[in-house]
Design brief:
Elements: E1 3-8, E2 13-19, E3 35-40, E4 46-47, E5 51-54, E6 63-69, E7 80-91, E8 94-105, H1 113-123, E9 126-128, E10 135-138, E11 145-154, E12 157-162
Parallel strand pairs: 1-8
Antiparallel strand pairs: 2-6, 3-4, 3-7, 5-6, 7-8, 9-10, 10-11, 11-12
Amino acid sequence: MGTYLGDYKKDSTIYFCWDTNDKSGASITRATNGAIKIYKADGTAESTAGITDTEDFDGISGVHNCKIDLSSNAFYSTGNDYSVVLSGAVIDGETVNAVLATFSIQNRFAASELFEKAAKLLVNKAVQNKLTGAVDYYDDDGETILLTHTPADQESIITRNPS
């Protein structure tokens, strides 16, 4: 199983290095490059869109760099996990098929829209109207209101209802 690279925002660019070795473990370049393919979730549909495979990165035999431009194709959509697969490479006389890495696009809570909005509420401007008690929480631009809390009085309890 490949290394999990993380949860990326839509239209990001991913970079990672991977290596090839001979039977004794020494670094070796690929005799046949094969293809790097991306698979979405558990499906068999694949894409090679946006992939740049640099063999022997920086002149180092056996160390390769992979760049994946997630903005290159609609195949790369939010809410999914992806596998980066090497297919049909020949290394030290052997055909190699391997999972190089896995990643996701906005498919974990920390990168979700809800989480981003909650973080903005904590760090951005908030203004309370002294007459109504309503609190407006603003976006990064300081003008767009993300959320308004309006209090409702009931005897000794004040409840704030988002609107």
